[in-house]
Amino acid sequence: AFDAVATAVRADLPILRPDGGPPLVYLDSAATSLTPEPVIDAITGYYRDVGASVHRGKHMLSDIASTRFEQVRAQVATEVGGGTRQVAFVPNTTAALNTVAAGLPLDRGDLVLAPLDVHHSNLLPWRARATVRMIPLTPEATPDLGAYAELLRLRPKVVAVSACSNVTGRFAPAEEMARMAHEAGALFVLDAAQSAPHGRIRLAATGADYAAFSAHKMLGPTGIGILYGRLAELAPSVLGGGTVDWVDLAGHRLRDEPHHLEPGTPHVAGVYGLGATLDYLRGLGWDAVAAHDATLTRLLYEEIARRPYLRPLGGPGHRDRAAIASLRLPPGADVDEVARMLSDSYRVMCRSGKLCAQPMVDGDGDGRPVLRISAYVYTTPEELGIAFAALDEVLTVTGVPLG
Ligand code: PMP
Question: Which stretches make up the Aminotransferase class V domain (predicted)?
Fold first, then answer.
């Protein structure tokens, strides 16, 4: 069953088709996943057969687009476990989190708590509006719940958390943290960008007041994301067409949620693609996706454990972790150069950098970037083997001792 999932998805990925060269090994899925043919077809099908915008008129093509647009919203609502009025289409997770931070009534003096591992997209929007205090991490790089309990006594307005770290792959105890936030009278905002792709898409069940994810990390198109939550309570920060149902010379009346948060012509093709994405993942089965992920995570951390010269952020251990690993390379290795050589000489695509989580990456290192390997539902054990063998060779030929 493990290989069946990957085999099925790989058959649908045009980019992996043999082209006479060495196989392409794509291990940057935490940044953006590959796109299967049914999703590509849904996107091009919209442009080919429909083309019109949504909610903008009475003609047939606009009706077709609007009907599908709202069907996909209902599909998302079912997946997250909420209602359609709790689901807004936004460009990506970053836009969703900015919409929440800008839409809540916050003052500079208000306190927001966020664990040290949050992505910049779940830190900077809060820092622009309020005062942020970081929740420290345990040695395994999950939020330290004791320290969190102490910080909650300061009466924060908001707690903003990553459900899964894009650096370490560790899942945070989101439900418990939400419950603790609510007991302290704070709103709980969950960045689900890395957890939703790995089968943890039941956002309502986490107790989060707001949550966000991006289609492009779960086989879907770029440019479309989901903001889930108590949308009626958010003031729109971008106004214009689509957000209002009455305008006269004296003022305007906002549309009901979620439409007041969907300004301008939306990414209709992206929504078509997202609908196909959710159908596709459901076809694979969320449990199968999560099980595949758990096996890959184990194999990934076994490869790392065999190499004492690699230090994964967040420590070893594969349990309750997505198939993401960020590696400190031995001293002397130029991490960006290693990533370039893996790509150009071995066709192994992985990420080097601070991973948009610089406070965490710099807080646990020497100022150098890390090398991130991240797998998804189409990744095979053979690909992990190829990548680590290539990494060993690159380090060796660049003169980095592996001893
Ligand atoms: N949060 C996390 C945890 C992420 O990994 C990412 C993507 N790198 C984002 C937020 C931002 O997602 P997007 O670029 O789609 O806005």
Answer: 25-384
